[in-house]
Amino acid sequence: xxxxxxxxxxxxxxxxxxxxxxxxxxxxxxxxxxxxxxxxxxxxxxxxxxxxxxxxxxxxxxxxxxxxxxxxxxxxxxxxxxxxxxxxxxxxxxxxxxxxxxxxxxxxxxxxxxxxxxxxxxxxxxxxxxxxxxxxxxxxxxxxxxxxxxxxxxxxxxxxxxxxxxxxxxxxxxxxxxxxxxxxxxxxxxxxxxxxxxxxxxxxxxxxxxxxxxxxxxxxxxxxxxxxxxxxxxxxxxxxxxxxxxxxxxxxxxxxxxxxxxxxxxxxxxxxxxxxxxxxxxxxxxxxxxxxxxxxxxxxxxxxxxxxxxxxxxxxxxxxxxxxxxxxxxxxxxxxxxxxxxxxxxxxxxxxxxxxxxxxxxxxxxxxxxxxxxxxxxxxxxxxxxxxxxxxxxxxxxxxxxxxxxxxxxxxxxxxxxxxxxxxxxxxxxxxxxxxxxxxxxxxxxxxxxxxxxxxxxxxxxxxxxxxxx
Length: 470
What we know:
Largest sheet: 7 strands, antiparallel
Distance between the termini: 28 Å
CATH architecture of the largest domain: 3-Layer(aba) Sandwich
């Protein structure tokens, strides 16, 4: 039997801290950002008998899925006291035993969360022998990284929620909620006590706050989207998922333009209009700019992606003209270990093949996942914000430096070059545009609005995303 203890100091009272844990979204927010986990069910309660279930790839065999079922076994709310408690045990999962107690205490408005875990490693005595032979690092190291990640997320989430706790909670509708960004945004907003609904392209589940629509058929029920305070549209066919054939290009364009137009026109004609319509966009708006420093005042580029972004943003005009505050989030490369550009880079980088692409002089404008979510929240809750905002970190880097920094974090060499013509052969136009174009984008308007970045520099962002702290 092993014992592990972790302590987190949260600059918030015990009631709001306990409430953060009690929301369904906390389950997703507490998941280590490098774990490719599928949430099966998370009860919106910590009470005894409630369960949280997820699946994840088996270590060393990612094609195999393992299931973890955690059932809550202890529950004491603060109820005006300065202490609280909840506990869970692993009913099904990879460990032979896993019991997790959470103790919360408050002193002078600051809450201490103590996690105490008692566990037996997989394969019982044999597993213990292997783990001890490796200095106890095989399992304990992963558990320590997991709780470090949990600590950072809890503290940062509470800090960002606290900035706007003086404002009323919002009723929010999100399209694209199952994507890389949408999954984390829904979870974060839920832990902040907002009433979050999902606009889905399938039959809605009435028990999960879902509303159905079919943008390809122009179908949406206006009566179902009355009385929302905020509507966010993140949906669209993946830009970097497949080679760009004519059919794929049409799908990329139509999935964004048609859906945004339908939603915008519908919102514009509602009797009770939302106060905000936030629509995803991308720094592809600016095109290939070489060494030029780009901000929101920079002119539009001239290629396929710029055309898409322009039509995408213009498709929200009806909402804007109807008096709805409209924001376009021009997002850069989102740093996430479970998807997007970084997710595709990890395997070759871990094998020592993450060197410069096409010379590596092109600029890469990136943003950490936490800054992506927190900056969107900042813009949502700041009433004076409107128009286009670059969601990128203030310190973009050249591709060669990105590769070198990733290699440093992974402790792998990063010198094997990949010529640009190879990218063209392997991925066609898509590979060239997404890897060789240079965009040195600065978040000028976002910083002027008062947003403060969690990750200004690349290395800390990568270490957070990969659990590779020093």
